[in-house]
Amino acid sequence: MNKLELINTFKNEARVTKAEAAVVVNLFFDEMSKALADGDRVEIRGLCSFYVKQYKAYTGRNPKTGKKVSVTPKKLPFFKCGQELKERVNQ
Hints:
There is one protein chain. The chain is α+β, with helices and mostly antiparallel strands. It has two domains: about 1-40; about 40-90, HU Protein, Chain A, CATH 4.10.520. The protein has three helices and five strands. It has helices at about 5-15, 20-35, 85-90; strands spanning about 40-45, 50-55, 60, 70, 75-80. The longest helix has 20 residues, at about 20-35.
């Protein structure tokens, strides 16, 4: 399911216009993105949680040339599946 399909499903289930459904879906994802950018954890009970891991700078190797390369510190978002979602998928 992509974002447009989610908007259409929401529109049909909530009996709202497509524009109203798009506003709600976009607001949800914008707020989620903003929270992760601020370093907060986003938890949707029973479904999943999103959080940001921070990695320190380190010296790596270019696998092609074998040269040492300096890797800058970075932050990456992670997804953790909830128990209810695991059970639904494995039915």
